[in-house]
């Protein structure tokens, strides 16, 4: 007992030291940004915005204080240090549709769990002879299929997180054969890749197609499907296989008899859906249909989610209650809002432009071969991607610049644009680079090292798929 007490005390001391180091580092970064003179390419406001961004980055990685506290601190510093003109300008990210959409999807995901609908879905995915590898493939296939009807990777992640938890609970208690870790890698890293297959599949595809149509040539929904569907499915499949290898998913572990019985009977001896399960299922189906129709007629994605939450909250239904709202992961919601606010400030102060100019100014493009220029442009896109919490925002900044380089050096602009999309959409080095990864790490067993390591794997796979597509597939269909 004495040894156990010492180990626990040591763990707390180590944790405290790591968090203290994070606080100290964040304070030093902020002080340097405030006290030093900005370089000629950067305004004083831009330097202070970058200082706030870097200090917030340290706080979010080391977590010495809750996400809510560090997020509020970061936007307050933007205003207090004079990086923006008003407190309203420092909090613009919290008015973003993404913040409210994330909150709504978290509520819908919790509703699925609270009524036991996740157990019913798990029962249909899982059988008595299921193994971790087969279960992983079932989850991955279901996520890919749902991507063609649900345009939000975040929605798919939130929908499947409770299902993955339920499936993992069905394996042997001592080990799940690596299933849970691999499944959360799929939900976080691999899941957003599926959104690139269709022009209406998500923000990344929509932003890229709009820039291509404006700067390169018109592109239709069918054109996009022909160009992107095969590469996306190939990349998705390779990433799923690598997720299984990364987490060492076992083929030998099977479902325990007792857990299988509970899954099949839903705990009450019947497989029929309850009233609440039917209501939640119908509302979710209606939201999915609305997302499909809305992608063609221009209905904002957030509206079906709002309607779904309201429908489940009315007194006669009562599925979503005040307690459910209080139990939402508010830290993630505040982190996303703060990150978007900082990005808006970086754009307004010219900090992003200064960073981009600095990166491009270091490279002697004139002496490079064409493939080397493409490689450097992709590397720049990756570096800029790391600065953003959403791939769509990174694409908005980097793609016009990359296409300008392509025009100057006679590089195929269409192929380069699609390559940038594949790589940027598959690169997640930091947890908050992608909201699906952030939520998956918060709800699952993944560490920062897992997120960064597997993010490099998916990035490498996307580069390989882009090379094959550029040299073999795209020339055949264009």
From TrEMBL:
Subcellular localization: Membrane
Entries under Pfam families matching the protein: Na_sulph_symp
N-terminal signal peptide: none
Alphabetized UniProt keyword annotations: Membrane, Transmembrane, Transmembrane helix
Cellular component GO terms held in the UniProt record: plasma membrane
Topology relative to the membrane: Multi-pass membrane protein
Transmembrane segments: 96-115, 182-207, 227-249, 279-297, 303-320, 332-356, 362-384, 391-411, 417-439, 451-473
Major place of residence: membrane
GO terms of molecular function: transmembrane transporter activity
Record's protein name: Anion permease
The organism of origin for this protein: Natrinema salsiterrestre
């Amino acid at each position: 007992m004495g040894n156990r007490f010492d180990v626990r005390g040591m763990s707390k001391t180590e944790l405290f030291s790591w968090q203290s180091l994070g606080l100290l580092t964040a304070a030093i970064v902020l002080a340097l940004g405030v006290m030093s003179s900005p370089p000629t390419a950067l305004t004083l406001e831009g330097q202070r915005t970058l200082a706030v961004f870097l200090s917030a980055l340290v706080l979010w990685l080391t977590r010495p204080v809750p996400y809510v506290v560090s997020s509020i601190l970061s936007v307050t510093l933007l205003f207090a240090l004079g990086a923006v003109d008003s407190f309203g300008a420092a909090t613009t990210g919290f008015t973003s549709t993404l913040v409210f959409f994330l909150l709504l999807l978290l509520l819908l995901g919790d509703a699925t769990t609270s009524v036991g609908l996740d157990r019913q879905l798990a029962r249909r995915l899982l059988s008595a002879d299921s193994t971790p590898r087969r279960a992983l493939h079932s989850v991955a296939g279901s996520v890919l299929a749902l991507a063609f009807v649900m345009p939000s990777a975040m929605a798919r992640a939130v929908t499947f997180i409770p299902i993955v938890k339920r499936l993992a609970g069905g394996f042997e208690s001592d080990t799940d054969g690596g299933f849970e870790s691999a499944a959360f890698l799929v939900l976080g890293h691999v899941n957003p890749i599926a959104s690139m297959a269709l022009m209406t599949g998500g923000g990344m595809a929509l932003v890229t197609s709009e820039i291509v149509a404006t700067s390169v040539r018109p592109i239709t929904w069918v054109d996009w499907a022909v160009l992107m569907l095969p590469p996306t499915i190939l990349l998705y499949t390779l990433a799923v296989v690598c997720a299984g290898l990364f987490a060492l998913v076992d083929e030998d572990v099977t479902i325990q008899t007792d857990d299988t019985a509970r899954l099949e009977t839903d705990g009450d001896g019947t497989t029929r859906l309850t009233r609440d399960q039917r209501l939640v299922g119908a509302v979710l189906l209606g939201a999915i249909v609305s997302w499909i129709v809305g992608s063609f007629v221009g209905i904002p994605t957030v509206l079906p989610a709002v309607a779904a939450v309201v429908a489940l909250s009315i007194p006669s239904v009562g599925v979503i209650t005040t307690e459910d709202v209080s139990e939402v992961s508010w830290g993630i919601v505040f982190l996303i809002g703060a990150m978007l606010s900082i990005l808006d400030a970086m754009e307004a102060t010219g900090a992003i432009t200064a960073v981009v100019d600095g990166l491009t100014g270091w490279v002697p493009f004139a002496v490079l071969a064409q493939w080397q220029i493409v490689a450097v442009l992709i590397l720049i896109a990756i570096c800029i991607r790391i600065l953003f919490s959403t791939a769509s925002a990174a694409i908005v900044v980097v793609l016009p610049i990359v296409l300008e380089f392509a025009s100057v050096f006679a590089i195929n602009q269409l192929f380069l644009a699609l390559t940038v999309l594949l790589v940027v959409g598959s690169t997640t080095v930091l947890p908050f680079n992608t909201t699906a990864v952030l939520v998956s790490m918060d709800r699952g067993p993944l560490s920062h090292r897992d997120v960064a390591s597997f993010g490099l794997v998916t990035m490498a796979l996307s580069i390989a798929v882009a090379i094959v597509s550029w040299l073999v597939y795209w020339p055949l269909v264009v």
